[in-house]
Amino acid sequence: MDISTTCVHGCKKKYDTTGAVSVPIFASSTFAHPGVGQSTGFDYSRTQNPTKEHLEQTVTALEGGEDTIAFSSGMAAVSTLMELFSPGDHIIASYDLYGGTFRIFTHISEKNGIKFSYAVNTEEILKKITPATKAVFIETPTNPMMNVIDIAAVSQITKKENLLLIVDNTFLTPIFQKPLALGADIALHSGTKYLGGHNDTLAGMLTVNTVDLSKKLRYISKTTGSSLSPFDSFLIIRGIKTLAIRMERHNKTAQAAAKWLTGQSKIKKVFYIGLQDHPDYEISCRQASGFGGMISFYVDNEQTAVSILENVKIIKYAESLGGTESLITYPVLQTHADLPKDEREARGINGCLLRLSIGLEALDDIISDLEQAIGGK
Ligand SMILES: *Cc1c(COP(=O)(O)O)cnc(C)c1O
């Protein structure tokens, strides 16, 4: 079955007998038992709820793998993941990362005794492995610099060294990239972004490839209590119905917008993984079937950056990405503000860098908006 059909129909299990075409929102915190020691399969919604289960099985059908667990946000998924590790454990992460992930690593997990090293590519990952290393955590493409990491190549290392490979798949989604099929053990999502797709809901997902990981993470999830609510599960299920068609459009518009940006005199460099001169273009073509809707670019000076942020009309100056509305973000002040300045600069995140999430508006309207916001030639 084509992935677009799976998006529309979701998991096959039916939870009611009315013939409802849309999955009901089971707004119940608790479930009555048919007899002592018996369960309908649902006991208490922190552990599991039918609407949440429907979402989880749908995401598993899209990502592949054994099971998916849904959380109240992407960061709740990351913090649950961190509970798999113990003091003294070492994790190697991609150098360029979502700011919130970097923050949880450095300000919370390190305090709890977990150590981190950062690497830019496969060779560096290999060099940083120590006897204490337990996992490799990568984003690809990375946020906000759009570097691409070869998932299959990293997975050869992690399999050989017996490490967990965790891939944040938020930017490309299973429509374009399937980390588990490429050898990862866990695919992570901020469901807030493309899966939900409408800039209206927070959610997170972990899709795992073994029963053992599923059991461990479900145990942590029900114990720490970061489960996604039935109503928010419903919104993400609804978002996923149009995921394939939205990704196709985001991809097409972003490709054209990136080309247009490349030709503007005040735009100094464009980072879009679908441009043929992107240094990782070949890896992208090998491991993904599309390039997504995320573009970063350098403008000529900070004044131009501020002017664009303050003058866009259709595009909104806001954090986040992956929704119907185009959003423009200033990583230096928003998503990556908590990175120490020298770390930020070393990653190329400065006052001239802007990140654009291409929404579903018409290409011409997006371009005219950028054109008037950029101002004079
Ligand atoms: C937004 C984001 C997160 C965090 O997800 P929330 O839903 O905002 O908690 C993690 N990784 C990436 C790549 C993101 O864009």
Describe this structure in words.
It is built from 14 helices and 12 strands. The model has no long low-confidence stretch (mean pLDDT 96). The chain has a 7-stranded mixed β-sheet with strand order 1-7-6-5-4-2-3, with helices on both faces. The longest helix is centred in the last third of the chain and has 20 residues, at 243-262. The chain is an alpha/beta fold and 377 residues long. The chain has helices spanning 3-9, 50-63, 74-82, 99-109, 122-128, 151-161, 173-176, 211-224, 230-241, 243-262, 281-287, 302-311, 341-346, 363-374, and strands at 67-71, 90-94, 115-119, 133-139, 164-168, 186-190, 204-208, 267-271, 294-299, 316-317, 327-329, 353-357. The protein binds pyridoxal-5'-phosphate. Pyridoxal-5'-phosphate binds next to helix 3 and helix 4.
Element pattern in H and E: HHEHEHEHEHEHEEHHHEHEHEEHEH
SSE-based structural type? alpha/beta
Poorly predicted residue ranges: none
Average pLDDT metric: 96
Largest sheet: 7 strands, mixed
Total count of helical runs of at least 4 residues: 14
In spatial order, strands of the major sheet run 1-7-6-5-4-2-3
Bound molecules: pyridoxal-5'-phosphate
Helix content: 25-40%
Strand content: 15-25%
Give the tally of β-strands: 12
Radius of gyration: 21 Å
Silhouette = globular
Question: Distance N terminus to C terminus?
Answer: 49 Å
